[in-house]
User: Fold these one by one.
Assistant:
Number 1:
Amino acid sequence: MAGFTAAALGAQEERFARAFAAADLEIARPLYHPDVVYLSPTVRLYDWPARIEGVDRMLEFITLTIRACRDIGYRAVEHAIAPAGDAAFVRVHFDWTREARRLRSNYVVVYRYRDGTIARQELYYDPSGALEDLRPGRRGVRSRPTRVAGARSAPDGTREAASNPTPPRPSGRRA
């Protein structure tokens, strides 16, 4: 296998941009191996397991985290492909509107590939960091995230947040 290419990574990131803009993660489903493993610090905000396995469960979780986001913009701003072509690193600007505020999350995703699909997706960001406020006159101002409020149990026994996908500031407990 020749490994994952820059052209394939560009097509992957364009598909993610379309999926998030449409708030329809099913658009991204073909990118994933059925047994994908998903790791993200965001899971702790929803009382989901630290490791999410399987494409259905992973897409369910990501959909949960974006449901209160409006006008999503997803843009890969930097990337690198491992020399063997079996992994890629992408820095993402994820912009959205919430309550008339335009916000940005800046994070890194590590993709590990198997059979030309994403077999493992790892997100890295500072969970205690502030979001960037993109409103005119406030560009570059850091905005403290709001806590996930009103979490309630989902039918499958997990917890789901009522309306806020934004990571909270730490409350003293460690994940």
Number 2:
Amino acid sequence: MTAEQVLEVVGLSVAAGPVPLVHDVSFRLRAGEALALVGESGSGKSMTALALLGLLPRGVAVTRGSVRLLEPGDPSPLDLVTAGGRTLADVRGRRVAMVFQDPMASLNPSITVGEQIAEVLRRHLGMGRAPAARQAVDLLGAVGIKEPGRRAGDHPHTFSGGMRQRAVIAMALACEPAVLIADEPTTALDVTIQAQILDLLVRMQDELGMAMLLVTHDLAWSPAPATGSRSCTPAGSWRRAPWARCSTIPRTRTRRRSWPPRRRTPCADADRRPSPAPCPPPGSRRPAARSAPAAPTRGRIRATPRRSSSSGRAPGACAAPAAPNSTSSASSANRRRRHHERS
């Protein structure tokens, strides 16, 4: 028995005035299915996610297409593109929830975390203040926050980045929605916390049986929870494929250009390359470096005898022999001859 379809997007296009941002997006989501929207920055992934809930910024609008939300047993689906503001307010958080990139921007800094989660329960489920507060504590514990009873009374700035993202996930799953949209939920987190958040999303999806739409630019983690993939380019063109095929065969120029380099394999002539010199063991002395032979010189260099410091030359200095001068040699010989004649 196949799962029931909960969301259908047909020919969705988004533009900012005359500038197209997203062009002709179509996909379907069934209960328990996870779909990944993969693309580089600026390709329109977040705009697509915001368009599903009518959260586009001012000046950006849906120009064409439909977003139909299907309720089990309801023959007439709800089109979220043409729905009014009051209808969308009832749908957001109750039937379709969203986890944004920056959890600090999603939380009110002046209200405690537990009160913000309880507000969602009171708004959509009509719970009283005390039951909603107890349910908020249970939700914080379900997403892995330690001491949820105490942390429910803390403000968002006292939480770490990973804890704030867990609190936002607890708020999104408070009413057990049919569709969860996660827009880059691990952008500002380190690798270890990213893995924990992804494991949390997969676990909550299995427990609630909801459909999940993952928006990411990171090809490293999107195949883990996603059963399908949808790649996007800055030009706004989209392509759907199973994840195994989408992640191994980059068919567009943009994806080939941004594709991470594959791991290099040893070449056939690796044995011909000189191997690096091994490092000496600890405590051993480094061998003396051998100097290159000196270039041959024309004249011979002799060491001058050591002289006193008054001569102006440093002891041990070397001097090249002076070139012979015929004039000075002749005058010396004449002086010696005249001296011999006088004596």
Number 3:
Amino acid sequence: MATKAPGKAQRPRRAEARRRRGGLLFFEPSCRSQPSSTSYGAPGFDVVVVIAGLEGAGPVEGAHGIRVQAEAALDAVRSASFDLIVLPGGEPGNTNLAASAALGSMLKSQAHAGRLLAAICAAPRAVAAHGLLDDRAATSFPGVEAEVRSGGAVYSQARVVRDGNIITSRGPGTALEFALTLVDALQGPAPAQALREDTLA
């Protein structure tokens, strides 16, 4: 279960009239936590995901040789509005995410609007690099802890941490808990609990 930071956190806006919510997932080479499809539906939960790449649409090969098809380039989606943006970890892709000024601008707009922003494994380092973890509770893969701390984060070793509209997690072994936390954040506890029961989580 995700650890929630108390107090000041800004809560994500919810669009009451909509059932389908859009998510944007960025992939760069050597990302480790990879999805099997671009959409998912379950009772009470329905989400459409756009997989984007910094360098354009096309296949992206992960650290373990698994290929994911990026459907869009950053330039094609940077002006769109998403309920959730997710950054996966891995290197050197994570370094590229941290270095991208265009992505940083998009993440800042997302966070400042109160919409959800999530990162797992090494990716919280990229969120910190873009100045979005200052005085926010966060976690990450242990190997980037120092950089997340230096970005101003109130560091936690919890498996998943939610501080308002920013959600972070530690690595591949926490990916299911991370995913269930995202479902909860997007559509509430009932769909998340249904998926938890279906997956024996």
Number 4:
Amino acid sequence: MQSFRLLKSQSSGKNYRDHGFSTKFWSWQGNWLMLFFIGFSIVSWSQEVVTLTASLDNTIYSENDNSNGIGSHIFAGRTNQGNLRRALVQFDLSSIPSDAVITNAVLRLRGNRQGPNEVNIHRVTTMWGEGTSNATGEEGGGAAPTANDATWNFSIYDTDSWTNAGGDFVAAPSATGDISNGTTSVFNGPNILADVIAWNNGSSDNFGWIIIGEENANNTA
């Protein structure tokens, strides 16, 4: 498989959330693309920089209703069997005043082992969940969903369905970029900024982003 895999730190029994920056490490093993989720930062008018970690994350799998709510990795792309993986992330903005003047918002991803691979960041339009599913091994196949998990067919298992299987999101990406071996890719620009401003001032519901890799060819996930 070639799915983006997110690896949480295992050192000292802690994760990097304890140090005020992201715990998320996206990685491939073998021919898998490795992405390090460096962080999501917001700059306000006073030049204060706020770095946030994901409050929710999950992976959905096209061939079944598996999920990976509390697993160590998240995935995005297409496997060598032609199955799709999509990653969901959401950030809690409650620490930012609703009237803050946000001047920039940045999402950083670092690649390793394979690339360049295109990644699209889309704003999600339906509430989704993270349950207690926990895939074993390399986690590429996911695990049976538990209550509140997002899956390919359910935004919240097993009570609320997506309107569109594979997730409900704005068709136009908020950001697009390539992830390459050993480099940090920055996703920002007017659409990422607009998403964050709307979430923060309440003009749009904050359901986070869905991360979609290259899905038109096998071995790109």
